[in-house]
Design a protein that fits this description.
Blueprint: H1 2-56, H2 63-76, E1 86-89, E2 97-100, E3 103-108, E4 119-123, E5 126-133, E6 135-136, E7 144-146, H3 152-155, E8 161-165, E9 179-180, H4 188-198, E10 204-205, E11 209-212, H5 218-229, H6 236-239, E12 240-242, E13 248-250, E14 258-265, E15 275-277, E16 280-290, E17 297-302, E18 305-307, E19 314-316, E20 321-327
Parallel strand pairs: 7-14, 18-20
Antiparallel strand pairs: 1-2, 2-5, 3-4, 5-19, 5-20, 6-10, 8-17, 9-11, 11-15, 12-13, 14-16, 16-17
Length: 329
């Protein structure tokens, strides 16, 4: 009787052990195979994000180049995508958005085949968009002048030289477009010189009111530029790249010759201190300064686009100027 009862329990134990073994395999399938899927997807997502950001740097100028750069960047991280995996679109009038969707089909699973699942498909999606910033910090206290009524985003020409601070014989009635970025009279020569050297650290937006400094500010201008640039001046070509469409972009932001300047409408008959509205921001390379005494002039060449980092406001991308790129998905 006892033997018969024990034999029955032994059979139950075998069944329980079999169930436990199947459960353990199921847990192993979950832990190992889900881990494989997770790591694969993480790699795909990281690559997709970076590829989208790389491609967006070429928008809106060249959609073809943006697609090629995204494919190239993904390949450098051992992820194969094709043109079918990259889509360019426009949130406004210009192509400003790139969507990258890499995928790896039929990833081999290790334990899940026991449960009838041999492979898995893994994919990721990333979308990046290029914007024009509506505000920024690190401005220098010069003025990029646009005639009244002109479009500030279509006025300046890449590679062309402009005066952003005038000297004696150029200014009119004591106004030379040295700027007081605080927007009120009395910023003074010391603040003006510091802001040339270090940039203005407060955040300014399109529509903010700034002012012109009174007088030429010749010596503070020369000292500020000399301190900012240092002893080594580079040519415009050394600091910029030019693409197939003839657009200049900043090669390296690590140079004091690169400046961001508020764009303002040119004043008519200015007299000393004047309030001025910021209408845009523009990137330049300081190419030279001339004059001495009361005749300090600052020359800059315009860059068609320069990427910056800012947490401030943005708007749909304009044809030229400063750019901000952000992931939107």
């Amino acid at each position: 009787m006892f033997k018969k009862h024990f034999s029955g329990q032994s059979g139950q134990v075998v069944v329980i052990v079999a169930i436990l073994i199947i459960s353990l395999f199921g847990m192993a399938a979950y832990v190992v195979d889900v881990g494989v899927i997770y790591e694969t997807r993480r790699h795909l997502q990281t690559t997709a994000d970076a590829a989208a950001l790389a491609g967006a740097q070429n928008l809106p100028e060249s959609s073809d180049t943006a697609v090629a750069k995204a494919i190239e960047y993904a390949a450098s991280h051992n992820v194969v995508i094709t043109e079918d995996d990259v889509v360019i679109s426009a949130s406004g009038s210009l192509p400003d958005t790139i969507k990258v969707t890499p995928s790896i089909p039929d990833i081999k699973l290790y334990f899940a085949p026991i449960l009838g699942h041999n492979t898995a498909n893994v994919g990721a999606t990333a979308t990046a968009r290029v914007y024009t910033p509506t505000g920024t910090a690190d401005l220098v206290p010069f003025g990029a002048l646009v005639p009244e009524g002109e479009d500030p985003y279509n006025y300046f020409v890449g590679g062309q030289e402009y005066i952003v601070k005038f000297g004696g014989g150029h200014g009119e009635n004591g106004n030379f477009y040295a700027m007081d970025l605080d927007g009120f009279q009395g910023g003074g020569a010391h603040d003006y010189e510091d802001r040339i050297r270090d940039g203005y650290q407060e955040y300014l937006e399109v529509g903010d009111i700034i002012a012109t400094e009174t007088g030429n500010m010749s010596n503070p201008t020369k000292r500020g530029v000399d301190d900012r640039v240092g002893s080594t001046w580079y040519s415009f070509d050394d600091l910029t790249d030019i693409d197939a469409q003839g657009n200049y972009s900043l090669k390296t932001p690590k140079t004091g010759q690169f400046v961001m300047v508020p764009v303002i409408y040119e004043l008519i008959n200015p007299h000393g201190w004047e309030e001025i509205e910021i209408i845009a921001f523009a990137p330049f390379i300081i190419t030279r300064t001339t004059g001495q005494g009361n005749n300090s002039i600052v020359y800059c060449k315009f860059i068609d686009k320069a990427l910056i980092v800012t947490e401030g406001g943005v708007t749909t991308v304009e044809p030229t100027g400063l750019r901000v790129i952000r992931l939107v998905e």
